[in-house]
Design goal:
Immunoglobulin-like, alpha+beta, 9 helices, 314 residues, 43% helix, five-stranded antiparallel β-sheet, rod-shaped
């Protein structure tokens, strides 16, 4: 008597295994997307609310990707191996299809066991195999494992997307730009802002000036007008100083950036101009600060490595 698994039973188990694997991979992808979008949203809000260093923002973004991969593994991928063998697939299929309860797993066990040690007769085992194969003749894995099983996960993903889309329309939040900065930590994306600073003077990005002199600085403000604008200069010896720019009308702010501190380091007088032949020094690095209104929050800041005509965001 033929007591092995019938082709219909083997095909049904294979179809069930493939369908379950696809659903688990979909679940893993949705779970990873939910976790990643949620963490990126948190990083974006923190980036908007605080001036975190780029290294910290990038570290948080990479951590979010790592946590999303772990979530995909724990919630979906690691369960795929449970149905690789015939025994595991039959056990899970019995749970999903109540018709096969205590029948399919028995058929698999009787077909794989040592025939001489089984108490049942070969006729009984062959009859069981035929009965199971007949029940699985028109088996469709989509009926016991429908895509609707993932509806709760689709709802969660839709809720997170709806929240992000809704916050994207909040004025002043600039969420799309901050989300992009969080999602692309390897890209040097500028900080979004309602206020743009354009350096008018100096004209050139690299300027060499005499020691004990000053560099005229003028900036043009586009967008939301700040309450005040500060410039922070930092020389090559890592010393920094801040100075407020004077409003000169037409959204223009001006102030000289003194280099007397750099001159005094070699004994020159800061009040006297440098004589011919005096060594020159590069213009200091610049950092602009603006404060749109009185607030407990620190003023908005953008670091500029050197004077440039490029438009930068604050």
């Amino acid at each position: 008597m033929n007591t092995t698994l019938r082709p219909a039973t083997v095909d049904a188990l294979a179809s069930f295994r493939d369908r379950r694997t696809r659903l688990l991979m979909m679940k893993a992808g949705i779970a990873a997307a939910v976790v990643l979008l949620g963490l990126l949203l948190i990083v974006a809000v923190l980036d908007w609310a605080t001036f975190m260093p780029d290294s910290l923002r990038q570290g948080l973004s990479y951590t979010g990707y790592f946590i999303a991969v772990i979530a995909a593994w724990r919630l979906g991928v690691r369960f795929v191996k449970e149905a690789r063998g015939l025994y595991g697939a039959a056990r899970l299929m019995e749970v999903a299809d109540k018709r096969m309860h205590e029948k399919l797993l028995s058929a698999v066990e009787l077909a794989q066991g040592a025939q001489e040690n089984l108490p049942d007769s070969p006729e009984f085992r062959a009859r069981l195999q035929d009965e199971v194969a007949g029940d699985l003749q028109d088996f469709k894995a989509e009926r016991i494992l429908p895509t609707s099983l993932l509806i709760p996960w689709f709802k969660v993903l839709g809720g997170v997307l709806f929240l992000i889309i809704g916050l994207s329309f909040v004025p002043g939040l600039h969420l799309p730009g901050f989300i992009a900065r969080a999602a692309l930590p390897f890209a040097n994306l500028s900080r979004p802002s309602s206020t743009k600073v354009k350096i008018v003077t100096p004209v050139r990005a690299d300027v060499v000036v005499p020691l004990a002199s000053s560099v005229p600085l003028a900036v043009q403000i586009d967008g939301k007008i700040p309450r005040r604008v500060l410039v922070e200069t930092r020389t090559s010896d890592a010393k920094s100083s801040k100075k407020e720019l004077t409003h000169n009308g037409a959204q223009r702010y001006e102030a000289p950036s003194a280099l007397a501190r750099a001159a005094s380091s070699i004994g020159s007088s800061p009040e006297m101009p440098s004589p011919p032949g005096t060594p020159s020094t590069p213009a200091p690095a610049l950092a602009f600060w603006s404060s749109p209104r009185p607030s407990r929050r620190p003023p908005t800041r953008v670091c500029h490595p050197r004077p440039s005509r490029k438009t930068t965001a604050i």
